[in-house]
Amino acid sequence: MTTKHYSVKSADYFSNVRRDVVSLIPVDPGQKILEIGAGTGNTLHYIKEAGIASEVMGVELMEIPGSNQGSPLIDHFQIANIEHDEIKAAPEYFDVILCADVLEHLVDPWAAIDKISGYLKKDGVLIVSMPNIREWKTLAKVVFKGEFTYYPQGGIMDRTHLRFFCKKNIRDLLTTSSLSPIFSKPNFMLREVPAGKKRRLLNLLTFRLFEDFLAMQYLFIAKKR
Description:
225 residues
């Protein structure tokens, strides 16, 4: 993963506070949280400001000038490539690790999961968000239009995505010798995602039969054994 194709992204791509992901963090104000792919640091800043954790650390591929990467509320911030660089923290140090829309950008997300989980305490949790290639609009373009177009700005077919997953594949990715998935949900089902209101209604009206096709992203929690 390089920075080559990230210069065309909008500011929101790096700066959104991931309230959907934050809503899944266990309640423990004394916990230590690491975010992989922390962007501008806004989510970590929000976490610390809200008293959700006592210590937070971020890792991001590139420096973003004028952002919260340098905020005094963030205890440590490291510019690094997670696939090649070591995280500057002790093994089994963190209670929670956040990995929101990162793994699909990696050459080897399976190796990255093994590496990341080494920094997680026993009984700690890894919270992951990943796009769902099975989403109906994406599938329709492939099946009915014969179109597999990448988009520079983002979305499921983001030009910077190197790997594609369905719900089952995400679960398999997070099932390792040290991790066990304990929770999964489409992100549109969370109230913290206002844009999901129409899909929540449609999911209800169709008795959840098409939930996997309505999901643009899945949120997973895996626990360290």
